[in-house]
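Hi everyone, sorry if this is the wrong subforum. Our group has a chain we'd like a structural model of before ordering constructs, and none of us has done structure prediction before. Sequence below.
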Amino acid sequence: MQIDPYIFFQGRTEEALNFYVGALDAKIEALVRFGEMPGTEGPAAQAGKVLHAAVRIGDTLVLASDGENSGQTNFTGFSLSLNAKDDVDARRLYDALAAGGQVRAPLGPTPFSSSFGMVADRFGVPWMVVVAPPAA
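Answer:
Right subforum, don't worry. Here is the predicted structure as tokens:
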């Protein structure tokens, strides 16, 4: 069994996906707009918005949509945990996600990781960047 996060960006999905492509080397695997769905009726302004998208970040598939296009996101009660390969990679990922976002915990050593930090990116999505300790 697998769990794939599904994020509703409320009108900013395409902007968010393009940000993740640049910041996290993500790959957009699918993107369907509301106007491409047969039988979908709605405001013309919504036709170009993202009904469903799939973006691969590392080995993980993240799904996304503009949802109701309300413009108001509320990302609470969870964080996406991003496993960096080493401290240099952690710094690169952390800085990319923090650009235009909000630092919640600076990146630094902890008892469980050589590098750990928390940010909310420019879209409000909470992230934890961590370097996993070597396997014993």
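For your construct planning: The chain has two domains: 6-65, 80-131. The CA atoms of residues 28 and 55 lie 4 Å apart.
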